[in-house]
From TrEMBL:
Gene3D superfamilies: D-Amino Acid Oxidase, subunit A, domain 2, FAD/NAD(P)-binding domain. Transmembrane segments: none annotated. Residues 5-336 form the FAD-binding domain. InterPro entries: FAD-bd, FAD/NAD-bd_sf, FAD_aromatic-hydroxylase. PANTHER family: MONOOXYGENASE, OXIDOREDUCTASE-RELATED. One of its GO terms (molecular function) is FAD binding. It comes from the Bacteria. SUPFAM superfamilies: FAD/NAD(P)-binding domain. This is FAD-dependent oxidoreductase.
Amino acid sequence: MTERSVLVSGAGVAGLTLAYWLRRHGWATTVVERAAAPRTGGYKIDIRGAALDVVDRMGLLPQLKELTTDVRAGAIVDGCGRRVASMGGDTFGGRQGPDTEIRRGDLLRVLTDALDVDCRYGEAIATLTQDDEGVDVTFSSGRTGRYDVVVGADGLHSATRRLAFGPEERYVRPMGYQICVYRVPDTLGLDREELTYVAPGRTALAYRTAQDSGATAMFLFEGGSTGRPSVEEQRRLLAETYADDGWQVPALLAAAADAPDFYFDTMAQVHADRWSAGRVALVGDAGYAASPASGQGTSVALVGGYVLAQELAAAADHRAAFDRYERRMRPFVEANQKLGPANVRRMVLHSDRQVRMSMRMLGLLGRLPGHDRLFAAAVASIHRAATAITLDGDATAAAGARVSGGDGGTRSRR
């Protein structure tokens, strides 16, 4: 039987998960990543619901549990730094039961170490041409290759999607907000804690995890940029937006100039009628970004990579595999995408009146007995969405383990 081949574009969560499982299922798997090295840093992310089953089946859950952020408390502060409302870290982050919060960079490192595939950094798809038998690819380095299937796992601004499906404007829907994240010195003296400051049209927060020597700042604010502004333009827009704010915002802004991991983008979702075009498919944010506001982008990426690998391994024809992948994933994706718009409206309040009313209500709720349970009930929709898919049993995973000669654990590239 001829070994089938796949090219995965993007070494993010979705791409690494897909590559792991396809290799387990016996596919010749190649990953290319535009970045020069594995990505580190990034904000903290949650693994919930069906995604926990995926990492458990990969044998990675115990390792990820050891890397938990262990954020134990969260609070809303006003411009003078007074704590308006405080709650437990899990409640503040919308976590229940076995939900796990880790840093994105730690998850990527664990996934990368588990791979046994050809992973090329500093490489990207330049052109691709399909025929009835495969896909011919030219890379940015000048290399060429031919593959049975190509999968775009290269994020919100996917180049693979643009090459195979058309312009970004057809698929990316801005939500009317900007997001910025970067590491900062911990001048607040945080200890596994998150503090959030809310002003009309903008929110700023800072947190420190158990794994950090410093802290991370995040900014969410109303507005949408046209095109892709330069980093200097992004920093200028950030500074102008928060120029009159109190609390520790000025110190957080000052750290932006030297932040090596400065991330800034329009908050957006991706909506596409189809996630495949011939022998090219999309997974994760490239095909169905839910936005950071959903709190489910990482979990959707983990589940998407797993399900696509299952279907490609089970079907003799890529078209049947892609059809089955979409039928299984689309209700789950739609349930999680619905979270984004509602969540961001709660995170970024539009007017002074909304801010005052919200602060008053949070202050009252925070003084009630059992207030953590009241806050937890408000995030029940996240957990309904996180479990809105039933993964197949372990039969397919076991078949993949037999192909690779493993026992269900992981193998290191090193």
